[in-house]
Amino acid sequence: MGFPEVRMRRLRRNPALRRMVAETSLSPNDFIMPLFVRPGTGIKKEIKSMPGNYQCSVDQLVEEAKAIEAVGVPAVILFGIPDTKDPIGSSAFADDAIVCRAIETLKKECPALCVITDVCMCEYTDHGHCGAIRPNLDGAPDVHNDATLELLAKEALAHARAGADMVAPSDMMDGRVGVLRQTLDDHHFEEVPIMAYSAKFASAFYGPFRDAAESPPQFGDRRTYQMDPPNRKEAMREIALDIEEGADIIMVKPALAYLDIIREASDCFDLPIAAYQVSGEFAMVKSAAAQGWIDEKNTALECLMAIKRAGAKLILTYWAKDAAVWLAR
Ligand code: PBG
Q: What pTM, to 2 d.p., does this model score?
């Protein structure tokens, strides 16, 4: 008698067995829902390339946030679309900054919801870049690192003062996590965590977002500050630096095309890892599903599971609300 025949299918026979041996699971607790807020009242404008997502005025944003909270999603991340833009993005930290108004109202109406803010200048600058522009060594207009750090610090502080539960710098300037940590601590916001977009790649998958946030760069691209897609070791260096500078959560972005980076980050570092399933990842599935070419729910859940399996604890996803409902059924 030899060994018994290997039968891998024994534990796949029915749903109960499959549930028992599932190595990974998804929960609404894993999700963070991105929301877009703009000045005004009664505004809920669907984003064409991202069906089911809206630019909302604060009153409508509250309704969205309550619905998100009701299905068990613990957190939202806010992006502001201001009325006016200028070269240094001053409406990001002005007294009437739209994200600050949104935070104050959300913390009043949904006190248990974790309100995270995206800290970046690109939604607020008239040139659409993530910071202040100055000529670089080649004489080309480029985002100036240290001038931008000052702007980001002002923005993060404005968010913290308005009551943000967490700030998330997405600009990819060198040293920004350290500067934000120092600024927050100096103003007694030492309890506000930083979720750093640590390994953020210059990606074509951001296309629909630039539509949503009305923030496409007016010249050039973001390749002098966001990471080059071929680079894996550099991603680990970026993450290690952000941890040294005081990041509490590290993020990889985009998610699906960078699962190897998520896996390696999760093997190398003990901090909670977040992954951003970006607008293009969402729009691809949505548009194929609208044609009847792919099943939205099953494809979305499979992608989310893959991101979780790769090692992310948190997933920023435009499916947060829908996926929470699907998982409850
Ligand atoms: C701001 C920012 C971007 C995204 C999140 N924060 C755009 C960009 O870097 O161009 C993209 C999110 C998405 O595509 O869903 N810097």
A: 0.97
